[in-house]
Specification:
The complex is a heterodimer of chains A (312) and B (370). Chain A has 312 residues and is of the alpha/beta class. Chain A is 23% helix and 19% strand. Chain A has helices at 38-42, 47-55, 80-88, 120-125, 162-168, 194-201, 220-228, 248-255, 275-284, and strands at 9-10, 13-17, 31-34, 65-68, 98-101, 131-135, 152-156, 178-184, 211-217, 238-240, 265-267, 288-290, 298-300, 303-305. Chain B contains 7 helices and 18 strands. Classes of the chains: A alpha/beta (312), B alpha/beta (370). Chains A and B meet through helix 2, helix 3 and helix 4 of A and strand 4, strand 7, strand 10, strand 11 and strand 12 of B.
Chain lengths: 312, 370
């Protein structure tokens, strides 16, 4: 399913695993993935050892992107030491434009077990950063970032704390074009309410937004209803409500939205809508509709359950 | 047989000018047996954790990481040791050579200082090194952890870090004239001899000054971008340059009003708060006495002691244990105290016993309650 493959691409560039033996070839181009293997962990290596060796590469100053993979096998270590190491290396990585923190597969560590931390120093440390992605909502704090150049922010969680969105509501990201939030389920810590999303949906907060993703969401229908009548739909090109529990109720709200027709793309892949509802949506929009990966609700004890794509 | 062959045959220590790469497991055995070569390059990570037999390391040892934590037999390290990460936590190593590495872990170490010329690029962790009294000037690293280094009275001139943790450094009472903590974090929690923050501190992401009981204010031009923890300080407002920053109380996210204007906290607000951590902060800020009064607490029991009337009061809390407090008057200080006791406490006598440290009320038979 969704988190069974490491990132192949990030920020428009291929991602390539880095190891000390393989070395850094063509430093500026592919994005280096630094991930601790189980064997390395078993011989007492730490992620910081990998990073220290990486920093010794002669061309490291040309590196434009880093993907941080596994750093812990016991779900006990937060990303705090990773964040500190990245901040401390800012003079060594003057060309860093893209950073993904937590490219970890479900098999390696379920998303809700990934222990994140306060990432806010990263925004101040890397003023040229354009793309930031993070996976794992436990312990995550982004603060209220002020950053001139950030174009894309992606936060993947199985349950997003309202504090993350509330912090973003006070952020100053004038060049943000892509905002992607995986809201998750309350079972895994989601406390975001529709009212928390209003500043984003109002359209003024991130004036250059072209893509809004409110994904992997257990309240996808309510989100769809709120978005359908929100000013943001008149500003963005792509609306992404995929991976969540969207059903006919939400699809209808979208189809009835006066502004939905102008979207270049509406992505609802992995959804619980009927064929009829999907067709109604297809007729309602001029742009592209991705309604693949239709799901059937689980019937159990007379109740019907719709699960998000990445629940744990 | 040449030197290489003799070495490979595991025979006597060979003093060899050309370095040979040795597998970590093999190197481990050779070092312990005293058969290690000078300038030995080791592939992998060497761990001598809790080893009491190790007394000596070969000169010029090169290895990715060296773990000497808990070693009780080795006091000095070779001067040309080459490692990325060195761990001497809990060992008896008393001094370090001026080596260069990425990370130095020296928690609960026996170090008194660090050598000038030591270059640690990423991180130095000296927490709990209670004998540490000084650090060299111009010390530069990414993250410096000095938590509970209780003998440390000052930080070095021209210190240059991104993250500094001096929590629990009770001896710290002043700052260097010139130094730099940039971008990251200053954790000065429980440094109660600190009366002010340094003027050269301009911008950090996180600031923890909780427990700095003698800190009255923060400089107005200090810009903190993520959060400031002000619990237990005398700070009455945020710096002008940090308006809108998150406020915390011993790690619990609250807001400016709760931190600085606790008189505005109402009983209804406390009772309506669903987050139990925030509710405890609200209670603490409001004060138990005011809360119990305004919440029309139930009186569970009432008796007398030399101070006068004692009253055991309770307010039921949603999704949390009941708040039960003993109200007592102290004749010597002439003050009323509201002391929280365990939720199951039923009588004033039980409460008084618990406060005095007795788990079993029947053991509490004071001759005199003062």
């Amino acid at each position: 399913m969704v988190l069974h493959e490491h990132l192949q691409q990030f920020a428009g560039k291929p991602v390539v695993d880095w190891s000390e033996d393989a070395g850094l070839k063509d430093a500026a181009n592919p994005i280096a993935r630094l991930s601790l293997s189980y064997d390395e962990y078993d011989t007492n290596a730490k992620w910081l050892d990998l990073f220290a060796a990486f920093l010794e590469e002669p061309d490291v100053s040309q590196v434009t992107g880093i993907v941080v993979g596994v750093w812990d096998f016991e779900s006990s270590e937060t990303s705090q030491s990773i964040v500190e190491a990245l901040v401390s290396a800012r003079d060594r990585l003057p060309n860093l434009r893209a950073l993904f923190l937590g490219d970890i597969l479900s098999e390696e560590n379920e998303m809700s077990w990934i222990q994140q931390s306060d990432l806010s120093p990263l925004f101040d440390a890397y003023s040229e950063l354009e793309h930031l992605g993070v996976r794992g909502g436990s312990g995550l704090n982004l603060g209220s970032p002020r950053h001139e150049k950030l174009q894309s922010l992606r936060v993947e969680t199985g349950g997003m704390d309202a504090g993350i969105v509330q912090g973003l509501n006070r952020a100053q990201l004038p060049n943000l074009e892509h905002l992607e939030l995986w809201l998750g389920t309350s079972d895994y810590g989601a406390t975001v309410a529709i009212e928390d999303l209003q500043p984003i949906l109002g359209g003024e907060l991130f004036p250059r937004l072209r893509y809004l993703g409110l994904r992997n969401c257990e309240m996808a229908d309510e989100v769809a209803r709120a978005v359908a009548s929100a000013p943001i739909v008149e500003r963005i090109q792509t609306l992404d409500l995929s991976l969540g529990s969207l059903s006919d109720e939400g699809a209808q709200a979208l189809a009835q939205s006066p502004s939905i027709a102008r979207l270049e793309k509406l992505d609802i892949h992995y959804h619980y809508c009927s064929d009829a509802a999907v067709e109604a949506l297809r007729s309602a929009i001029n742009g592209e509709l991705d309604a693949t990966d239709a799901q059937k609700p689980d019937g159990y004890d007379g109740e019907s359950y719709r699960y998000v794509a990445v629940g744990e | 047989m040449n030197a290489v062959a003799r070495f490979q045959a595991g025979e006597e220590k060979v003093d060899c000018a050309a370095p040979l790469a040795v597998d970590a497991k093999k190197a481990h055995g050779m070092i312990l047996a005293g058969r290690a070569l000078a300038n030995m390059q080791v592939k992998g990570h060497l761990s001598f954790e809790d080893n009491f037999k190790l007394t000596h390391l070969p000169d010029g040892l090169t290895v990715a990481s060296l773990d000497l934590s808990g070693c009780s037999g080795i006091r000095e390290l070779p001067c040309d040791l080459r490692v990325r990460r060195l761990n001497i936590s809990g060992s008896i190593v008393q001094s370090l050579p001026p080596l260069g590495c990425y990370e130095l872990e020296a928690r609960s170490s026996s170090l008194v200082t660090l050598p000038e010329g030591l270059r640690v690029e990423g991180r130095i962790d000296l927490s709990g090194s209670t004998k540490l009294v000084a650090l060299p000037p111009k010390l530069k690293t990414g993250s410096l952890v000095l938590a509970n280094c209780v003998s440390l009275e000052s930080l070095p001139e021209e210190l240059d870090v991104y993250f500094l943790d001096v929590s629990g450094c009770a001896g710290l009472h002043e700052w260097p004239q010139k130094a730099s903590i940039r971008i990251g974090r200053l954790n000065a929690s429980n440094c109660f001899n600190l009366r002010e923050l340094p003027s050269w501190l301009r911008e950090v992401s996180q600031l923890d000054v909780s427990g700095c009981a003698n800190l009255h204010s923060l400089p107005d031009d200090l810009r903190v971008s993520s959060w400031i923890d002000v619990a237990g300080t005398r700070i009455s407002r945020l710096p002008r340059a940090s308006q809108g920053v998150g406020v915390r109380w011993r790690g619990v996210p609250i807001d400016e009003r709760i931190a600085f204007r606790p008189d505005t906290i109402s009983v209804d607000e406390v009772l309506a708060e669903t987050n139990s951590e925030v509710r405890r902060v609200l209670l603490e800020r409001m004060g138990y006495e005011k809360f119990l009064l305004e919440a029309e607490a139930q009186t569970l029991d009432c008796d007398r002691d030399p101070g006068g009337e004692r009253r055991l009061m309770r307010v039921m809390m949603q999704d949390d244990e009941p708040l039960v407090c003993l109200s007592v008057f102290c004749p010597s200080t002439q003050r009323q105290y509201m002391l929280r006791v365990p939720p199951a406490t039923g009588t004033c006598r039980q409460a008084a016993a618990w406060i005095a440290g007795f788990d079993r009320t029947e053991d509490y038979n004071p001759t005199l309650e003062t």
